[in-house]
Specification:
2 domains, metal ion binding, mainly alpha, calcium, Peroxidase, domain 1, two-stranded antiparallel sheet, Peroxidase, globular, peroxidase, about 350 residues, Peroxidase, domain 2
Length: about 350
């Protein structure tokens, strides 16, 4: 092999130096840039073992209860969509607030694993007292829920503070989307969080985990309101058998459920296959596969898991950074369910 000339060697060295400088600048920007007051290295000095503690606390729970990931992901969605990502959904009512706080919204039916966030908080208080907010724990728990079920490990900026109050259940009722939400409603909702249409379709992919309770499915049997449009007739028959429209008790619809897709314990693209085929449990799950604005992305995600994971990761960061409290605008609660 012929040795390089001095000129060529000098040019190569210069090119390497330029690339190194560019890479170090990009890396530095990613680590230092705040996302609305958040930072990717926020706890680097104050609680360096944070992510390890969250992961080790959650992993055994996922083995004992395989439905935990979907519960934690839903918990994050419902916290962030009401008043922003501030852990207000964890606050237990006291005194005359009873039955009127956020968690008692009818749309928060079936919210679970709030106590798991409190348990993780207890472990973190022993390791690094008064440092980690409950709102950051919710985000990290949801991030682990995605990763440990086969999805991407998302890098999320941290530094959220907790709210000092919880909104009323009426606020939650108005801000959380109904089970009958259509494509217009969902695109408008996520556009308010600066998501593109592609990101909006990607974040809906969280429905690949978990189940849908029958009380949210029954409205799809009403032919008059169009909520059963784009539903495969065989799938409609299946839903009617699993979720009978008329039952002896209203509690039946609350207790029964159907899986969100064919692989409801795995974070994958099966949700999009079902959306294309008209096998969505909710109105949005079917319409997203037919609407000309969203169908191209549904088809793209069904065919390309990497593209879905990349778009979902971007959307996850935007959702988890929505209306966050930072600096002196919030607090770090010592106990997650109390102010």
């Amino acid at each position: 092999m012929k040795p390089k000339s001095k000129a060529a060697a000098s040019a190569s060295c210069f090119l390497v130096m330029v690339i190194s400088l560019l890479c170090s600048c990009i890396s530095g920007d990613q680590m230092e840039t705040n996302y609305e007051g958040l930072s990717y290295n926020y706890y680097e000095k104050t609680c360096p073992k944070l992510e390890d503690i969250v992961r080790s606390s959650i992993s055994p729970m996922f083995i004992l209860d395989p439905t935990s990931p979907s519960a934690l992901l839903r918990l994050m969605f419902h916290d962030c969509q009401v008043q922003g990502c501030d852990a207000s959904i964890l606050i237990e009512p006291s005194g005359d607030q009873n039955q009127f706080t956020e968690i008692y919204s009818a749309k928060n039916f079936g919210i679970r694993k709030r106590e798991l966030i409190g348990s993780i908080k207890t472990s973190l208080e022993a390791e690094c007292p008064n440092q980690v907010s409950c709102s950051d724990i919710i985000i990290l728990a949801a991030r682990e829920a995605v990763a440990l079920t086969g999805g991407p490990l998302i890098s999320v900026p941290l530094g959220r503070k907790d709210s000092l109050s919880t909104p009323s259940k009426h606020v939650a009722d108005s801000e959380l989307p109904p089970s009958t939400a259509d494509v217009d409603t969902i695109l408008s909702l996520f556009a308010g969080m600066a998501m593109t249409v592609e990101e909006s379709v990607a974040i809906m992919g969280s429905h690949t985990l978990g189940v849908t309770h029958c009380n949210n499915v029954l409205s799809r049997f009403d032919n008059a309101n169009g909520t059963n449009a784009n539903m495969d007739p065989r799938f409609e028959t299946f839903l009617r058998v699993v979720c009978p429209e008329f039952s002896p008790s209203s509690k039946t619809a609350e207790a029964t459920f159907v899986p969100n897709d064919q692989t409801s314990l795995t974070f994958d693209t099966a949700y999009y296959d079902d959306a294309i085929a008209g096998r969505g449990n909710l109105r949005i799950d079917s319409e997203i596969g037919a609407d000309p604005r969203t169908r191209p992305f549904v088809e793209a995600f069904a065919a390309d898991q990497d593209r879905f994971f990349n778009a979902f990761s971007s959307a996850f960061v935007k959702l988890s950074s929505y209306k966050v409290l930072t600096g002196n605008n919030g607090v770090v609660r010592s106990v997650c369910d109390k102010v």
